[in-house]
Amino acid sequence: MNSKPSPIYAILLLALLCNGASTVASGCIESERNALVDFKRGLRDHAGRLSSWTGSDCCNWQGVACSNRTGHVVRLDLRNPHPFSTYTDDPPYNKWSMGDELRPSLLGLKNLRYLDLSMNYFGGRPIPEFVGSIRNLRYLNLSRAGLGGPVPRQIGNLSSLQYLDLYNVPYYRFSGHVPEFSIDDPLWISGLSSLQHLDMGGVKFRDTSSLVESLNMLPHIVEVRLSQCGIQSIPLSLPHVNFTRLSTLDLSYSWIDSPTIPSWLFNVSSLVHLDLSSNWFRGSIPAEVGNLSSLNVLALSDNLIQGGIPKELGNICNLQTLSLMNINISRSLPELGDVFTGCIKTSLENLELSRTGLRSYLPDWLGELTSLKTLFLSGNSLVGSLPESLGRLTSLQVLQLSYNELNGTVPAESLGGLVELDYLDLSKNLLEGTISEAHLANLTKLSYLDLSSNHLALKFSPNWVPLFRLQMLHVSSCSLGKKFPSWIRNQASISYLFMANAGIVDAMPDWFWVLVVQVRRLDISENAISGRLPINFSSFVSVWDLDLRSNYFYGSLPKFSRNVEVLDLSNNLFSGTIDPAIGESMPSLILLSLSGNKLHGDVPSSLCQLQNVATIDLARNLFSGELPNCWRHLSQEYDLIVLDISSNNLSGGVPDTIGSLSSLEVLHLSNNSLSGEIPSSLHGCTRLTILDLSQNKFTGKIPKWIMETFPSLRILRLRSNMLAGRIPRNLSRLFGLHIVDLAHNNLAGKIPKSFGKFAAMKVSRVYSRSVFTFSGSSYVESLEVVMKGGALKYDDSIGILSLVNALDLSGNNLYGIIPPELGRLRGLMSLNLSGNHLNGEIPKEVGSMQSLVSLDLSRNELSGAIPSTMAYLTFLSYLDLSSNNLSGRIPSGNQLQTFNESTYSGNPGLCGFPVKQICENDDNGAGTRNNNTSEEDGAGSQVWLSYLGTAPGFVVGFWIFWGTLILKSNWKDAYFSYIDRQYDRFYVIVAITFNRCKNSYVEYQNICL
């Protein structure tokens, strides 16, 4: 007999079920608890993040979550809660990182849906294949987990997976080994049929032929991020576009080489975010981009795209970000107005057009982009003044106009109206006039201000207290007045402060050191600021770049923070000694420059413990004793590049361990009292480009192994030592050698004929700066070159030193003739052979050395006539032929007639102007005069032919250089970035180049002296 159950039984049954469910949910399934315990045993957990994994209820353990209904573990979140610091941590050493072994006991969590192991460090171990067997996974995040190797194709079995994150791009400042994910064949991705979000940034694809097709087979895919994947190529077309839900596609930084932007992209109408930046897409931006009506973000920066911006882009009413930086638009900015007349005019929030070749002035239509929050127009060829229409951009937060040619004054009306402005960069322009309180008073949200490298003066009332709180202030090369600016006193949030070359002549106020205690980078160099540094500088724990050079700071050196990477205190008045434990107290140093002070004592051996150091500059101090013999202790991975301890009171020999510095490029030990022979241990310094051992007491011979050991050598200075023997003939095989100074030694023998083969001296030098840059600060090479009867110092900050070709063998015991082969050195600027025992005639080939500025052959035993070919040396501004046995008439024409009598003194056989002795038959020897006239005419003809031959080269060279700067805006940026602060010295380069084009002697002499 069938009957319906009584309602009371139904109620009791329901209560029993609920009670049973409650019982299950209140605890933890034992098998899953055991699986978690075993999984924990394989982990390294120094920070004790899993200390709560005790007791029977695993559902209450840290990072574990269970289903309220079934009690099964469904979530395991072991993501590192403390991300790596980009400034202080390397991923393996983050104390919160877990790592070691991923045990297969995870398979015991059969209902696991969520697994996050990101931001840990598993030592480069591969992703275990068993991960592909956790069938119920919906979420898998292994990003930056220190895993590496091939991504197992078994992950393609996770048909329920909706979110996969394998992002593995290295950290910015991480210097250790970063494990790398790789995928041989991406076809398995098509098996992830439920996938919606995919991030494989940094994963390297070995074969990408099926990548796009595999992604196209995912029916639910919404987000694809494949940045920095080395994809290299993608198909230009697809037979069928299945991306019906795709809203985000990021293929940036993937080296994709494509003749055009693939057409199928413009059929993905659901796209909201498209990032193709930093690839090699060519062609133009097609008009079909207007089909992407849902687009919010379009990023095409850093490609090879050319041409304008299609006006159809202006019809995308949702477009908020347009990033086209570093592509070649090369249009007048006003011409783009027709693009920004549609509905984009009210939707656009971010416009990035830096380094796109834009020219002309800033048009008024910019003021109509009323929703604009960021505007990037730096690195173009924009001229004129800032329009008042900019003041209508009341929502603008970022304005970057640096590296242009904007001129005129900055209108307070337009700038003062940008009340939302957070970031303002007007640097590297030609702006002039005054910045006053009216410009900045309303900018209460300003945190970044860069006005550097203009002709601006900042003038505020002494009591002005700005309402903004800056994090970065860059006013280098602006005029701040002689008094230290008091208006920055309330900028307590400042992290980056640059006030170099600002005209300050004042004592440092005490409040300044309190203000900058949290600063990261501080540059107040090239002023006239005086005072002592605070004794407790070690408490400035945030600073990692400190540049106080070229001021009047005095007193002893304080102890600095362990975090300092760049310390430049050069050209001040510091005294005392260096901390003998500097290697332990400042282990992070990359650049140490203490040159040009009054420091004394020993050079501390703990310098060799600076494992990251690339430059040590202790020149022009009072250090004494011997050089420490400890350099072998420096890490091979971070070897020293520059070592300059010149102009001190050092004695003893060159330590053998310096030869272990295999990365050393510049070695300056000049102007000390070092002795002994040039050590053979320098064999190990195979990268040397500059070797300067001059003005010491070195003995022995010039080693013949220099040519084999230093193939990159460009400058060799051994002058003023006690070196003897012959000059090695093989020196000329160093093709880059352009300054050779062996003067004032005891060298004997003949000048090698092979010296006419110096390749770098045969042509005019090519511009090249010897600047080594570290963390924003730099070591700039400087060198004294003896020419024109004195020592000229060349600062290579704008490349002048690289233009100099010089050969100095003076003050030795050389004999024999001057080799005619030296005439091949047509790029040589200075030749000094004085103070030797050279005989014979001056070879006529000297007249072929067309770049000679300085020629000194004095104090030898030269005889015969001065060759008439020397009249061809139209650049010659210094000549000394005194104290020889020269005879005959002094040739006339060009420079030779401009030198005074002292140039030729000590040669009793010479006659004619400018010496007093009159040549025979000067009054009645018409034939002689005619011959001279003919000779002068010949010289003149040669000079004019030289002019005519040079003029076309000048025109072509001029337009190759300036035309390239006009067309290549990124080259122009680099060029003007180093000349903006050194305009006067740039003038010297222009002068040298100009004079090489054979302009008049007088103009050349005025500039080069």
Structure report:
- With 1009 residues, this protein is of the alpha/beta class.
- Among the domains are: 146 residues, Ribonuclease Inhibitor (Leucine-rich repeat, LRR (right-handed beta-alpha superhelix), Alpha-Beta Horseshoe), CATH 3.80.10; 56 residues, no CATH class.
- The chain has 13 helices and 63 strands.
- The protein has a 32-stranded mixed sheet, with no helix packed on it. Strands 32-34-36-38-40-42-44-46 form an 8-stranded parallel sheet, with no helix packed on it.
- Helix 7 links the parallel strand 30 and strand 31.
- The longest helix has 42 residues.
- It starts with 6 loop residues before the first helix and ends with a helix.
Supply the key terms.
about 1000 residues; alpha/beta; Leucine-rich repeat, LRR (right-handed beta-alpha superhelix); 32-stranded mixed beta sheet; 8-stranded parallel beta sheet; 13 helices; 63 strands; disordered N terminus; Leucine-rich repeat receptor-like protein kinase; transmembrane
Topology:
Layout lengths: L6 H19 L4 H12 L1 E2 L19 E3 L6 E5 L21 E2 L13 E3 L22 E3 L7 E2 L12 E3 L15 E3 L13 E3 L4 E2 L5 H6 L6 E3 L22 E3 L6 E2 L14 E3 L4 E2 L15 E3 L21 E3 L20 H4 L2 E3 L6 E2 L13 E3 L4 E4 L13 E3 L4 E4 L3 H5 L6 E3 L4 E6 L1 H4 L7 E3 L4 E4 L13 E3 L21 E3 L11 H6 L5 E3 L6 E3 L12 E3 L4 E5 L9 E3 L4 E4 L5 H4 L5 E3 L4 E4 L13 E3 L4 E5 L15 E3 L4 E4 L13 E3 L4 E5 L12 E3 L4 E3 L6 H4 L5 E3 L6 E2 L13 E3 L4 E5 L20 E4 L2 E4 L1 E6 L2 E6 L10 E3 L4 E4 L13 E3 L4 E4 L13 E3 L4 E4 L13 E3 L4 E5 L19 E3 L14 H42 L1 H11 L3 H14 L4 H8 L1
Parallel strand pairs: 3-5, 5-6, 6-8, 7-9, 8-10, 9-11, 10-12, 12-13, 13-15, 14-16, 15-17, 17-18, 18-19, 19-21, 20-22, 21-23, 22-24, 23-25, 24-26, 25-27, 26-28, 27-29, 29-30, 30-31, 31-33, 32-34, 33-35, 34-36, 35-37, 36-38, 37-39, 38-40, 39-41, 40-42, 41-43, 42-44, 43-45, 44-46, 45-47, 47-49, ...
Antiparallel strand pairs: 1-4, 2-3, 51-52, 53-54
